[in-house]
Amino acid sequence: MLQFDFASLWDARAILAEGAWITLKVTLVAIACGIALGTLLAVCAVVRVRALNAFARAYVTLFRSIPLVMLLLWFFLIVPQLLKSIFDLSPSVDIRLVSAMVAFSMLEAAFFAEIIRAGILGLPVGQFQAARSLGMTTLQAFHHIILPQAFRAMLPIILTQCIVIFQDTSLVYVIALGDFFSNAVRIGERDGTVVQMLLFAGLVYWVICVTLSGMVKLVQLRLRQA
């Protein structure tokens, strides 16, 4: 019968907390940068400019067809020097963390782009025409009228995608980045408590995801009542 060694969990709290902080950083950066870039891609996909339409379609198709694990390995093994030169990183910066943040941000931008694009296309055509009749430019129309409504309509789906991002961060183990899951496994291998640590990590992910899912359902309910 499996018995939990709570003393070992308590002794490993600092390492687990450090891993949880890395998981949180990757998640937040992926969400922020993914939404920002995804919004630009969504706008490029719906404006009447063929070059921008083609670029948005190519970007989304490319990144949605690449497995996340492969993308993480590409950024870590192939382009670390490029990342260092672009972001002017000092030697003390963990390139694994930067690689994971960039890979997640670029991948999630493709998913957020499709979500936001669907929100824009779901709005009545008259919304944009009304904005133009008020003398707004295309950018002003998107900023003040189109995007706020699109985000409101797609907010539950956006929040659900954020939960998926949090779950997917555990895949950074392939580049040996010490996130919460990776640290839990290493502690288990060190102390001979792998099963215990896997169950504990799974429980933590489950509690967080269930809590976040409950928040999404609450947002959906309030949007329906508004």
* Rg value: 21 Å
Q: How would you classify the helix and strand content by structural class?
A: mainly alpha
Give the low-pLDDT segments.
Answer: none
H/E topology pattern: HHHHHHHHHH
How much β-strand is present in the residues?
under 5%
Largest sheet: none
What features would you describe in this structure?
Helix content is 81%, strand content 0%. It is mostly helical and 226 residues long. Helix 2 runs antiparallel to helix 9 (180-191), helix 3 crosses helix 6 and helix 4 crosses helix 6 (95-121). The model has no long low-confidence stretch (mean pLDDT 88).
Q: Characteristics of this structure?
A:
226 residues; mainly alpha; 10 helices
Short description:
The chain has 226 residues and is an all-alpha fold.
Element layout with pairings:
Layout: H1 6-11, H2 13-46, H3 50-64, H4 68-77, H5 80-87, H6 95-121, H7 125-133, H8 138-168, H9 180-191, H10 194-225
